[in-house]
């Protein structure tokens, strides 16, 4: 990837048909700066290793492609899907994490048009990935194909809600083919939106009721703790020349396993370390005590619409601060 001063020519050259990644690399190697490649004459392009046709395509592109205009289009693009896609990206960023958005179109396409700021945050704290060249518009057939990249890049896939005809089923099928874990959040048996997730749980997918279920299954429960605290005597300082290298057998035996029946509870963060609730979460929590409370009653007491209450409760459940009991909820300080 060129530096920021040269990136508009990288974008412009990606508009040239017949160029491709191999010829693109030849131009980079020969000219150094892509600006020089963009402004080169036919003889210079041929000297860089291009055949007549792709060299002529670059000359023709200069008459119809404005690098500055292409850069402006790219900077305005955003790629984040509606619904749970946007919620998952935003929650990760709010927690200080990194997230990757895999899109089914060129990175210069604006789709959908409602998460511009979120897209910028993802670029700053993660990455946006596409297998398509610039100029490819979003197409319904591209989304199921894109899902194989999502599942392949991940340790596991979590499906929150999906009907039998949902595109999420493609992610699940790809995950199974790629030997990845599949997690599903159960839902009402009367809800079509939960029919696929419920069936997947019935067929062996991991049922998820809170974040610890995922951490435990993927052996990630001890992340964030000092290595010595997790592995006892084991320590290794690579900055010391005479440091003894750790024994691979010891490393393997020290790793936590999801099958261990006596995993210490201390691998989970204490309830006090949970991020302080926002105003809406605080409004909900102050009305939850030891007795179960129906979601409708909770909405009336908190003075919030039922849709907001449902979203807030979902986030509180993921934080382990509340748990669902039948159709009601009750407050939980931690495991």
TrEMBL record:
Residues 269-325 form the DprA winged helix domain. It comes from the Eukaryota. Residues 82-218 form the Smf/DprA SLOG domain. Residues 233-278 are annotated as: Disordered. It holds the Pfam family WHD_DprA. Belongs to the DprA/Smf family. This is DNA-processing protein A. It comes from Geodia barretti. The lineage of its organism: Eukaryota, Metazoa, Porifera, Demospongiae, Heteroscleromorpha.
